[in-house]
Amino acid sequence: MKRVLFASLIVLAIALSSFTAVMTGQQRGAAPAAAPAAVQPAEPAPRLADGHPDLSGVWWGGADVGPNLRGARGARGAPRGTPPPTFTALYQPAVAEKAKKLSDKDDPTLRCIPTAFGTLNVSLYDVGAVGQIVATPKFVVMMQETFHGYRIIPTDGRQARDNVPPSYRGDSVGHWEGDVFVVETKNFTDDTWMWAEGRVSPHSDALRIVERYHRVDKNTLEIDATVYDPKVLTGPWTVPKATLVLAPFDQIMPLICSGTETHGLMDAAAKQAAPQQ
Question: How far is CA 133 from the centre of its chain?
Fold first, then answer.
């Protein structure tokens, strides 16, 4: 929120500065400033040899390299207004009561266990996160910097595998609906959270996620998702739309999480959660 507010203030300051400069110049008899050049249309999305959009690239919200209102706004969802229900707001009563007994000290990511959900494992509420896609006509590979994880998603029409054990990030299959890449993921373990940035959000092994990736143009990737968990939720959770932008680099970094770095955080969280004497 602070990043978005800061970016908005910068844009407002620039606009006011430009307006003041024009008015001052006119008062002194100077010629009015020239009209701004027309906005160039966005370049179309590149395509694979089979004609489908090429989703390849490093994608992020863009906030780490300066104000990017489209990335920051999109990564936090659709236009501002009444926010949609959160994942935890849809908890069944018994699950909600169980979740009240959990706190930051129980956060699986403190032990380097990844979150179960986050398109590209990019948290929808952290516009600085980074993920990379490598697309081929047969597979789409999604990788993330955090937790050194990946998903290999077949696109050749095969069904989800029934001979692999449950995993942190589940097992995915994908197909194309026009220019939209649809990914269905299931077969999760139940010992992760949906995401851990300040949210206590456990799920069950019945978790199923359907994502829709649309490369709108060369520099823009839109992602919609719906989450189903009949053991935990009262109904499907519609995830706020994420709009990511193409990063100015072509490789993510190999960030290593060993658990050693988070030892202090775990101790602090445990102390905070301990009953006061």
Answer: 13
Using alpha carbons only, how large is the chain's radius of gyration in Å?
22
Give residue 26's region: left, alpha or beta (phi > 0; psi -120 to 50).
alpha
One-letter amino acid at 21 equals A
Q: Which residue has the tokens 């960030």?
A: 255
User: What is the average pLDDT across 156-166?
Assistant: 93
Are residues 138 and 254 in contact, defined by beta-carbon separation less than 8 angstroms? no
Give the 3-state secondary structure of residue 142.
strand
Q: Supply 40's token pair.
A: 């160039």
> Does the pLDDT value for residue 8 go beyond 50?
no
Class of residue 37 by CB neighbours under 10 A (exposed 0-12, middle 13-18, buried 19+): exposed
Of 211, 227, 224, 197, whose CA–CA distance to 74 is shortest?
A: 224
Query: To which H or E segment does residue 93 belong?
Result: helix 93-100
Q: What are phi and psi of 57, to 5 degrees?
A: 150, 170
| Predicted TM-score of the model (pTM) | 0.76
d(CA 122, CA 115): 10
Write out pLDDT tens, residues 86-142: 899 999 999 999 999 998 888 888 888 888 987 665 544 444 578 999 999 899 999
**Which 3 state secondary structure label does DSSP give 132?**
strand
